[in-house]
Design a protein that fits this description.
Structural class: alpha+beta
Shape: elongated
CATH superfamily of the largest domain: Jelly Rolls
Number of strands: 7
CATH topology of the largest domain: Jelly Rolls
Number of domains: 2
Number of helices: 6
Radius of gyration: 24 Å
Distance between the termini: 48 Å
């Protein structure tokens, strides 16, 4: 198949080696007034599910029709203050809670070249240098992501038994490392990547060519809150 030829999602499902993503990385969201409706709808849906209520049950509690609730949750209509008040009372939260996602700030964290924060992690005990490249902490996505630049040199030890929550992505930049994940060893050369469940034992098992540098991106669920 010519890589430049556009194909449908249905066709992609049948192409070996092609993964169809659930989310379009180039998707656009409506700006302006629609952002408010989408934010309110998302908060209503999350609060309803937190209370284990169906749309019909929330409709009965709030005296708002099922159809209207469905439109609100999908960000398709601008509800009146009276309607929002009825829904907030039915959910047991102040009306301001329904506006929370619209009002909260969104953050970005830039790290200039050579300015990554050195951070102690389990790997530092094995002589692995970790430079944290960014950190957002608590966020609306509910996922913590920690990007590191890891450097291995002549003083580094092998340590193929790291284990922690979440997923990890490695991208090899320099050097050659044989990297173990569970029962399989992968030869990692510049340009190679590895994506895996970090709950299984993993880590560099043999340092073939040093110095070695690779990007490690760890993601795990946000706790509490």
């Amino acid at each position: 198949m010519n890589s430049r030829t556009p194909v449908s999602v249905e066709t992609l499902d049948a192409v070996p080696g092609v993964v169809v993503l659930e989310q379009d990385p180039h998707a656009l969201r409506d700006n302006g007034e629609k952002r408010l409706e989408v934010a309110i709808g998302l908060e209503v849906r999350l609060l309803r599910k937190h209370l284990a209520l169906t749309v019909a049950e929330l409709a009965e509690r709030s005296d708002v029709s099922v159809g209207m609730l469905s439109k609100i949750e999908n960000g398709l209509t601008s509800p009146s203050l009276t309607t929002l008040q009825a829904i907030s009372h039915a959910l047991g939260v102040p009306i301001s809670q329904l506006l929370r996602r619209f009002e909260e700030e969104r953050h970005a964290h830039q790290v200039k070249a050579g300015e990554g924060v050195q951070r102690d992690r389990r790997g530092t005990r094995a002589g692995h240098q970790y430079a944290l490249l960014g950190y957002l902490g608590a966020n609306s996505a509910g996922v913590i992501v920690e990007p590191y630049m890891i450097t291995l040199n002549d003083e580094s030890d092998v340590f193929p038994t790291f284990q922690h929550d979440g997923l990890e992505y490695l991208y090899m930049i320099e050097g050659i490392v044989e990297y173990r994940h569970a029962d399989t060893v992968y030869r990692m050369e510049p340009g190679d990547s590895l994506f895996f469940d970090a709950d299984a034992p993993h880590g560099p098992e043999r340092l073939v060519e040093l110095p070695a540098r690779y990007l490690s991106v760890i993601s795990y669920p946000q706790r509490g809150g």
